[in-house]
């Protein structure tokens, strides 16, 4: 995590995403409390059980949100790719985060300390209305994704997951997208067995959708992968 001490860049993000519309008061009243953060690939924005210290505006990048269950298993909830918020649930009823947010690629967030949000914003009707709308959208998306995890075949869920988490590398002057993650963790997130996951990855390789390398899978047929993904986890 990198704290970016660049007031102009912070102001540019505020203007770009019209964050001032989130508040009843002039945003200059809150600028001194706002911190711009940068998270790199695989870095956690926060983890379940970690002290809830910041409420975040998610600005740019891509992240996956998942829950750790009481038996230690993990369940995928949703992906973040567009402007959103993080920490709105904990803002009202918890002093620690209840989910995990992990960056898939470079992520930029604006953080506001929890105590400042609770002190100044919980009586702000505009702020409460905005986070309520975003919370309703998130709940709808999580409900849909839970249905996907239960009802869709693994090949579709896995294709959707790979589409969201693959990234571009330039190896030997050849740009290509790769998929490189812990397969045991993916099996948990998608609610399947490790053996079934491996069989499905092998099927993708046999169909020339993926090509298995030493340390990762290369995407060799992006169109076929997107067809299988069916816009899941959108």
Write a compact overview of the structure shown.
The chain is 38% helix and 26% strand.
What does this structure look like?
The protein has 2 domains: 2-150, Jelly Rolls, CATH 2.60.120; 153-229, Arc Repressor Mutant, subunit A (Orthogonal Bundle), CATH 1.10.10. Helices cover 38% and strands 26% of the residues. It has helices spanning 7-16, 88-93, 114-120, 125-151, 154-165, 183-189, 194-206, 222-229; strands spanning 2-4, 35-39, 44-46, 54-60, 63-68, 74-80, 84-86, 100-103, 107-113, 167-171, 174-179, 210-212, 217-219. The strands form 3 sheets. Strands 1-2-9-4-7 form a 5-stranded antiparallel sheet. Helix 6 packs across helix 7 (194-206). The model has no long low-confidence stretch (mean pLDDT 91).
Number of domains: 2
Strand proportion: 25-35%
Terminal-residue CA separation = 26 Å
Q: What is the makeup of the main sheet? A: 5 strands, antiparallel
Radius of gyration: 19 Å
Q: N-to-C SSE series? A: EHEEEEEEHEEHHHEEHHEEH
- Please identify the structural class as seen in this structure: alpha+beta
CATH hierarchy, class of the largest domain: Mainly Beta
The CATH architecture of the largest domain: Sandwich
Q: Judging from the principal axes of the Cα atoms, what is the shape?
A: globular
Q: Can you give the mean pLDDT?
A: 91
CATH fold topology of the largest domain: Jelly Rolls
Weakly predicted, low-confidence segments = none
Question: Can you count the helices?
Answer: 8
Specify the CATH homologous superfamily of the largest domain. Answer: Jelly Rolls
Q: What is the helical fraction, as a range of percent?
A: 25-40%
Strand order of the largest sheet: 1-2-9-4-7
E-strand count:
13
């Amino acid at each position: 995590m990198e704290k970016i001490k660049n007031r102009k860049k912070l102001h540019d993000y505020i203007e770009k995403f019209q964050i001032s519309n989130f508040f009843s008061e002039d945003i200059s009243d809150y600028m001194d409390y706002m911190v711009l953060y940068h998270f790199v690939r695989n870095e956690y924005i926060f983890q379940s059980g970690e002290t809830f210290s910041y409420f975040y505006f998610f600005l740019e990048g891509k992240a996956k949100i998942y829950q750790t269950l009481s038996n230690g298993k993990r369940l995928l909830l949703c992906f973040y790719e567009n402007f959103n918020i993080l920490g709105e649930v904990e803002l009202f009823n918890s002093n620690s985060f209840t989910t995990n947010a992990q960056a898939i690629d470079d992520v930029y967030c604006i953080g506001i300390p929890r105590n400042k949000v609770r002190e100044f914003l919980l009586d702000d009707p505009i702020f409460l209305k905005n986070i309520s709308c975003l919370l309703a959208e998130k709940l709808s998306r999580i409900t849909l994704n839970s249905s996907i995890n239960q009802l869709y075949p693994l090949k579709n869920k896995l294709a959707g997951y790979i589409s969201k988490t693959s990234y571009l590398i330039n190896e030997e002057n050849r740009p290509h997208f790769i998929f490189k993650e812990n397969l045991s963790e993916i099996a948990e997130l998608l609610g399947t067995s490790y053996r079934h996951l491996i069989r499905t990855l092998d099927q993708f390789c046999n169909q020339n959708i993926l090509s298995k390398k030493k340390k990762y899978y290369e995407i060799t047929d992006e169109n076929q992968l997107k067809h299988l993904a069916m816009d899941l986890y959108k």
